[in-house]
Amino acid sequence: MADTLGRVSSAGAGGAGLAVGPVGVVGGSDGELVPVRPLAFRELLDLPFALIQGHVRLLAGLIAPVYVVAVGVVVGVTAAGSGVTGGSDDGTAWAAIVSTLVCAWLLRLFVRGVATPIGLAGVHLRAIGWRGALAEMRARFGALLAFQGIYTLIGAGVLIPATPLMITLLPAIVWLSWLRAKRFAVLPVLFEEGGGYRAAVARAKILAVGAEWQIAGLWLYLRGLLLVLVVPVLGIPLFLSDFSGTHRWAVIVLVTAAALLIVTFTEVVDSATRVVAYVDRRCRREAWDIRIPVGGRIR
Predict the structure, then answer these.
(1) According to the model, what pLDDT value does residue 269 have?
(2) Which of 54, 70, 103, 150 could form an SS bridge with 33, CB 3.0 to 4.6 Å?
(3) What are the UniProt keywords, alphabetically (predicted)?
């Protein structure tokens, strides 16, 4: 039986021995973190957190040490910058800002590289450890680096010119959300289907056809979540300074650590959301949730 998308439904094909789910996965099986079927928008919002919860120990074990190193690098570079400039406020501030931006960029690269294969393993109900996640990242590091660089350039190219005129910032953010939506599935395509960066971009754009604004809304939701987190987390150092007095180095460490923590958490959620959206788009466009067993006999 064909549905409105022209796909063969599992109900109509039950007598033919058809099964639901991509290779190695049966839809609706026990322990399934992400149902392999077309997903409602609410599910696109909720399921990334279920995917993260199912691998929280592995993700924490991989990301936490890198996060601690990043905070240490920021503190070290800031201290060096302060020493070189004779302890000037401007020199210390610039050293802290630049080192935080660089470490945040590298931290996002690492999180994307490990969280995406872990999320895909969860979709396939496939076991994966920290060695497997790192091996997946190493195998696709060149394409991952290209994605990260282009991603940053697009964001900077859209937001920086629009920021001085506040009236243009909101339209620029909406436009950026649409641009992000067209490339939203690039990383899952890279890790699931292989190929180079350009092929993954072309493939992601095909998968996004017809759902650009839905995915853009998803992207904007994640940014809104980031905004909700930023205010209380970055307010903690100021709150503590009211009791302990204004200690410059304590505030610098707390603020940079909080900023990197927000970046890390947001990128984990973003990577999981990309995987969930990839499953949805493949099911809707390619009937990824319909599988014909090899050697099945049809009567």
Answers:
(1) 94
(2) 54
(3) Membrane, Transmembrane, Transmembrane helix
